[in-house]
Every structure is written in C-alpha cells, then in structure tokens.
From TrEMBL:
Keyword annotations: Acyltransferase, Cell shape, Cell wall biogenesis/degradation, Peptidoglycan synthesis, Transferase
Alphabetical list of PANTHER family matching this protein: LIPID II:GLYCINE GLYCYLTRANSFERASE
Protein name according to UniProt: BioF2-like acetyltransferase domain-containing protein
Organism: Methanosarcina mazei SarPi
GO MF: aminoacyltransferase activity
SUPFAM superfamilies: Acyl-CoA N-acyltransferases (Nat)
Domain BioF2-like acetyltransferase: 178-291
Superkingdom as given in the UniProt entry: Archaea
Protein family per UniProt: Belongs to the FemABX family.
Membrane-spanning segments: none
UniProt cross-references to InterPro entries, sorted A to Z: Acyl_CoA_acyltransferase, BioF2-like_GNAT_dom, FEMABX, PG_Glycine_Bridge_Synth
A Pfam match: Acetyltransf_6
Amino acid sequence: MAEIEITDNFKKEEYNNFLLNNPYASVFQTLEMAEVYKRYADTEPLILVAKNGNSREIEAALLAKKIREKKGYLESLSLHSTIRGGPVFRDTKNGARAASLLLQKYDNMAKDWGPLYTRIYPLFDTPQLIPAYIENNYEYGGWNNYIINLKRPVEEIWRGINEANRKNIKKASNEIVIEEVTEKILIPDFYELIAQNYASKGQPLEGIEYFQNAFEILSPNMAKFFMAKIKDEYVAARLVLTYKGVVYDWHTGALEKYVSLKPNNLLVWHILKWGAENGYHTFDFGGGGEPRQYLEGWVEFKRRFGGKLVSYGRYTKVHQEKKLYVAKKGFQYYKKLKFTQK
C-alpha cells in the first residue's frame, strides 16, 4: 500500500479539483470558506491534505475552524475547533486510511494550536470513516439533521410540507416580501436580525465583520442572503450557502415581535422554491439537534417542512481535559451569577 504524506503544502487548483470530483465534499471544506475564517479575528482555519506517496494525488483533506469566544485572560479557556463535513476522502481503502492518518496528524498539531476540544460533524453517511474516528479516540454522539429533496416539481415539495405550516406560509405571503441582499450596505441590518436571535438564546455569535467577509467572498455564487420585509421594516433574515447542488441553511434570525407572523416559515419556503427552480438537488437544514431534543420547538420547525430525518452523528475529541474542566466550571458560575443579578 502506498505511503501517505500529510502536509499543508498544496496547490489551490489540485485542492479545488479534489473537492469538485469528490461526492463527500461540502462548502465547509472549501478554500473560500477558509478565507472567511482567516479574515475574521476570532476564527482561524487549518487545512491539511493527505497525499499518495506514489501518485502525489490527494487521498484525503480536512479544513478545521478554530473559534475564540473570549478574549484576554479567558481566551485559552474558550478555544475550540469544528470540522464540518470533513475529513473528505477518496472512497477507497487507501482513502479511508489516509483520513485516519490525517486526523492523527491534526490531533498532534491541535496540542499546540490550542483548542480544548474538536468536534466533527459529518454531512454524509460515511460509515467508512468510523474506524478512523475510533482509531483516533473521537467519541460518538447522537446528532440529527433534516434533508429535503429539491430535485422534483415545486408542487410536490409544497405538498410535503405540514398542512398547518402551509397555511402559515400562505398567510405570511399576504403581507411579507422576501428580498435578496445584493449590496453590502444592508449587512448591518441583516446582522442585527441574526444577532438578536442568538442573544435571545444565550448563544455566541461571530461579529459583523464575519458576515461582511462571507458576503464579500462567497456571495453571490456560494452564499445567498435573504431578508423578509413588512412595509419598510426588515423583520427576519436567513443566510444559506450553496455548493455542488446543495443549499446549506447556515444562519437565521427574526424580530421577536414579528415571529407570530411567520416570516421564518416564508423565508424557508422561498429558499426551497428558489433552490428547486435554480437546479439545486438538496436542501440541508444544518442540524436537527441531539436525539433528546427531538420535541424542541426549533427542531419541530424544521421537521414541518417534510424533510428526511438523517442521523450521521458527531464525533468529539478532548485535547486539554484539565482546561476544559476549568472552562466548564467557570461558565456554570458565570451563568449562575448572570441570572442572579437580573
């Protein structure tokens, strides 16, 4: 069997060709996505490829995103990494072996790179990689998603949506207009809607520069920014990514006072219809939570669009156990203090 070389030295063209010809590639493993991470102060990309020692062809590749949620003395306790849709690998025994060696190299580098843990989110059904996860001590956890087939008549997609949801969408369409953001000047309005959603859930969110970078680098060919408007006011927003026939749901938000008018429902339907009419074959809802979250409202919202439930799981490896323990305890104390002071 050929020797495998792990390196971060590769030509842009060979990397792009590897992804374009690989059925397991996604937008989250592209060089364009890496550039979005690179330009933002609190995220950092790491790209590694595994090359065949004989042919020099890429056998596997991964793009990891390191995220810093705190600054100053808390920085080292807030670092973590995600590998979404990776590693990408040739569907051969050598490709799977290369993916395992790639993770091994990544784990060694992660010790100096700084994340407390890494979490991998597979976007395809790839049981071929399970041995690689096991060999490198990545722990499996349940993680669902919803996938909608767009390669069919729009009328059929519509009929697959929950009846009550269809009524909400019809009602919303009477007073809400959907617009695509085509000018960077509107990104602050777009971001404000997304930020309010994350703040209401107590979830961290990258700064506006991150979304400005995404607009500059990915739009219009790899990203679409949509907003819902009532009269002269923007009330909801949704950002989707597009790559190789797939529309990926990425970020969403809405003004709380307008949620009852169902702008998010109309936005999703608009995107499904747009995707089907523009040659896309799949809509990926971007995650459906852990199995225990099946009945939560945000999961139910996605389920009502009639997609297929898939469970590819997620895989986590802790790189710095002591620091992660301190970080968790500190975060629990912070939350308790925060709510006590309200």
